[in-house]
Specification:
Strand 9 and strand 10 form a beta hairpin. With 440 residues, the protein is of the alpha/beta class. It is elongated. It is built from 15 helices and 17 strands. The structure holds NADP nicotinamide-adenine-dinucleotide phosphate (NAP). The site of NADP nicotinamide-adenine-dinucleotide phosphate has 24 residues, from helix 1.
Length: 440
């Protein structure tokens, strides 16, 4: 058997401690599978005395992860500190510059600096592996980078944030408001004290930028992503979606379109019959549409210590077996510069919920503005409240009611123009709710 692969783990929190545990538990099996033992030789965290449920007495301790990253006692540095800059970035840069392999679960770091870090790995012929950085325990990076060589991928989309999917699932099944479900998510440890990063779509965007690059062989372009979160979704939208045959999910979508690569993160209506609509709670899912395999959906845990560590350990095992691939599937110099498809050119179906006065001619006025922009309506339904109906059975009470429109494929630009005209005509009393519909 070959010499052991010596691993240094920087960051011993939820994921780091689970990695150390799994490497110990699977010790023999990993050695058999990789033809070489894997040994943790060094660790680093902020507080050496903290109880972590793992035995670190046999490993060299480093107060500073950058010292671990340049140590001659390790071959592979596993960065599980987190954050797009600071200690995580310094650790990864130092490890690569020292000729060490790197494994990380850090999507923030990759989305921001992945393009600059990958050439460092290429220069030394070492790995920069990040299976755990998108969709946690789901092996979607390997699938895109290695398993679909015979395909041209034209769309990849998914539920990439468990917190958002948990909140939307509870809102839908229990009719609860966003704020109440968010509080529960925080109590259960699914959401951070400051949930902005998750619920406003930024976490999904980081993961999407990585998937886009791998799917299309393009340079990561996180700045090009259109981002909308879920905080403005109301229980009424989930109820109306259900009536229309849809569920609402926060999706990250990357698609090759005639105007370029479209990348967007927003609440999305998906047909109830689709695979992705079945995914409830904190579970993640990714669907890949490609010419040969057609549609492939991977569903599984997107977070959690053990599930994420499962992906980290798979990367370490590849390195131990000598399987080193360019981080983004091809050398960075051969990645295409993506042509950005502006959101205004996005074309698809739309659900639009307007709050309008219950008054003769309102629906007709709205429909006229839609027609002027050449937007065809699949349906237009006025939802009268019981109060409005009691006040005036002829529908002229002036009380606020919901007018729900579903459009056939239209461009974002035409929808926005029509809504501006509707607002300018004082046909609505509140900002409109607009949710894009994703076709299967
Ligand atoms: N948790 C998940 O489910 C999950 C899923 C997918 C990806 N990830 C990614 O995995 C990475 C780790 O996440 P996590 O949830 O395990 O984080 P965590 O529980 O907060 O752990 C972070 C660890 O880093 C250590 N650390 C922080 N700053 C440090 C510094 N300056 N020097 C040395 N050590 C430092 C901490 O030390 P102390 O323990 O001493 O404080 C802690 O052990 C992140 O990039 C995250 O995005 C996490």
């Amino acid at each position: 058997m070959l010499e052991p692969l010596r691993v240094g783990v920087a960051g011993l929190g939820t994921v780091g401690a689970a990695v150390v545990r799994i490497l110990a538990r699977q010790d023999n099996a990993l050695a058999e599978r990789c033809g070489r033992p894997i040994r943790v030789t060094a660790v680093s965290a902020r507080d050496r005395a903290k109880a972590r449920g793992i035995d670190i007495s046999g490993h060299a301790w480093f107060d500073d992860p950058v010292d671990l990253a340049r140590s001659r006692e390790v071959d592979c540095v596993v960065e599980l500190i987190g954050g797009g800059d600071g200690a995580a970035k310094d650790t990864v840069e130092t490890a690569l510059a020292s000729g060490h392999h790197v494994v990380t679960a850090n999507k923030a770091l990759l989305a921001k600096h992945g393009l600059a870090l990958a050439p460092l790995a290429e220069r030394w012929g070492v790995a920069l592996s990040f299976e755990a950085a998108a969709a946690g325990g789901i092996p979607v990076i390997k699938t895109l980078r290695e398993a679909l060589h015979g395909n041209a991928v034209w769309r990849v989309y998914g539920i990439l944030n468990g917190t958002c999917n948990y909140i939307l699932s509870r809102m839908e099944t229990e009719g609860l408001a966003f704020a109440e479900c968010l509080k529960d998510a925080q109590r259960l440890g699914y959401a951070e004290a400051d949930p902005t990063f998750d619920v406003e779509g930024f976490d999904t965007a980081h993961k999407l930028s990585i998937l886009t690059s791998l799917a299309f062989g393009t340079e990561m372009d996180a700045e090009a992503i259109y981002i909308e979160g879920i905080s403005k979704i109301a229980p009424l939208d989930l109820k109306l979606a259900d009536e229309l045959g849809y569920r609402i999910k926060l999706l990250g979508v990357a698609e090759r379109t005639p105007s370029g690569v479209e990348q967007r993160v927003h609440p999305t209506m998906v047909p109830k019959s689709s695979s992705i609509a079945q995914v409830m709670g904190v579970t993640n899912a990714v669907t890949i549409d490609a010419d040969a395999v057609r549609e492939l959906t991977l569903i599984g845990p997107g977070a959690g210590g053990d599930a994420t560590a499962s992906a980290v350990v798979a990367d370490i095992a590849d390195i131990a077996s000598g399987t080193i691939r360019p981080p983004f599937g091809r050398p960075v110099a051969r990645l295409e510069k993506p042509q950005r498809a502006p959101m205004q050119r996005h074309e698809g179906g739309y659900y639009i919920r307007l709050t309008v006065p219950d008054r003769l001619g309102t629906a007709a006025g709205v429909a006229r503005h839609m027609a002027d922009e050449e937007i065809s309506l699949e349906s237009i339904v006025q939802k009268r409240s019981d109060i409005a109906a009691t006040k005036d059975p002829h529908g002229r009470s002036g009380a606020p009611v919901s007018l729900v429109l579903v459009t056939y494929a239209a461009t974002e630009a035409s929808i926005r123009r029509a809504l501006d005209k509707i607002a300018a005509d004082s046909l609505v009393s509140e900002p409109p709710q607009v949710i894009r519909i994703e076709r299967e």
